[in-house]
Amino acid sequence: MQVNSWNDRSRKDELPLPRKSEAGFTLLEMVVAMVIMMVGLLALAATIGFALTVTNKGRNVTNSKLLVVSILEQMETLRNTRQLSFEEISNSASPNFAGFPNTFQPVSVNPGPDGIYGTGDDLIDAGADGIYGTADDFSNPSLARPGLSRQILITPLSGSLKKIQVTLRASGVRGATDESKGVSYLNNDANSNFLP
Amino acid sequence: MSSSVDRRTQAGFSLLEMVVSMGIMLIVTASVLTLAKDAFKVSFTAYELTDAQESVRTAHEYISRDLLTAGDGMKNINNICLAANFVSNYLTKNPANNPCGAGLVNLPLVHSDNNVPAGTTVLGIAPTVSVRSTPTATDRLTLLQLDSTFTPVTPTAVTPSGANISVAASDLSKFAPGEIYFILSSTGATFGTVTNKAGGNIIFAASDALGLNAPGNGGPINLVSAGGTLPISIRRMRIINYFVDQNGLLTRRTFGISGGVGYSDSIIADHITNLQIRYVLGADEDGNNQQPVAQLTVDQQEAVRQVEVSVTVETVHAVNKGKTQPVTMTTTTSVRNLQFLEALQP
Description:
The complex is a heterodimer. By secondary structure, chain A is an alpha+beta fold. Chain A has one domain (44-187). Chain A has helices spanning 6-10, 27-81; strands at 105-108, 124-125, 138-139, 144-158, 161-171, 177-187. The longest helix of chain A has 55 residues, at 27-81. Chain A is elongated and about 95 Å long. Chain B is of the alpha+beta class. Helix content of chain B is 23%, strand content 30%. In chain B, the strands form five sheets. Chain B has a six-stranded mixed beta sheet. A five-stranded antiparallel beta sheet of chain B has the order 4-7-15-16-17, with helices on one face. In chain B, a hairpin with a 4-residue loop joins β8 and β9. At the A-B interface, α2 of A face α1, β19, β20 and α6 of B.
């Protein structure tokens, strides 16, 4: 069997090619082409991985939005039921209510002794007796929804209107933090939803 | 190629070149196929999860919408009494045990049924299905809504013992047998199924298909109309009941629709593995704040402020090591239309 080197084959006197168009691809050309193709396919595979990340992110966003809306709904409830006065719905403390902390708080399953979500006491567990204010109350970190924290910022815009901004942080993929923000406005008319 | 050309003059690939190139080709193809297999798996998972997420969103949207409007148009209506059998057969295994009378129970505007026991049959579906109880027991939710498209009818007379309600001739055509109506007075309210129409009367006879009617002196119509002495009004009201059946279908059953057998089912979402509902309460009678509960007592019914709904959906197909993947989402909705009783007090 004769093995031709690249140079041998290119010598016209030994291997005359009848037509230029019949010259096939060289091995080098094939290798280069396949490498390019592989790079392309790898990029394509990476795109699919990216798509999965985006889908996961989308699901987290939906989840976050629901938890943001929960707080905005609660503000409406607090006002309508007059559980808190319009003045008390604030980041600062008032005589009967400690106020909503303006820092990120863990998202608790329960509202704590004050019955209001998003306050500093949400993680307090009533203990074995199930009654708040007794000696066996303790801070129970397992009440927090894992990987989530929430901030409530309340800005008075006028004497009768407040801006409520809720930000939810969720730990996302590869240690990143995803933030979802929701803004709502609250007036001091507890009857606004109802016909007289 | 012409056969007259000498074959040896044509430079093809040598065998070695072919072996090398085919070897490389094989390696490349194998790795590409492995990648493609993973890529297909990933894209399949992404598709399945997105699909499951959409189901959760739809479920939340429907339930939230109903919670927002629950109790709308029902100002000053309280003390709704229903046949206990109907309530325990169709709505909840945990009725509010506040009997309006023998065989009757109270139905609040929003009512719970925490962790329905295994084997609880959903009546009126063939073949028979139960409320989902595996892998975990699921909750049911019942709420009331006024149908504002129906103009209230004021009857001319009531004969509670026979449960005959006389209405003006012009109103008679509004009623059809099988339909469920809401009968209310200043003292309370109840539901009844029209069984017949005769001689200017709409008749709520015993043994209707749903077990809702209880004519006679101890019956709810007698109670509501105080023996026929109090003026009553007839409206159309919907009882909306959410449940998950054993096949994972989240169903919204509406009683009190126009026409038909009195109720209809709509499938809201499928592959639901869990539906958990908690009720966020206001302060109790002593002014103490209460924690969210999964089952409402009679005293707590008035204190419901928000409802926390948690829906879990599994992917339709197995996506991870032969297992389906669950997707759970939770939100809280303010039942703002239940609050008018307090909010509107000066």
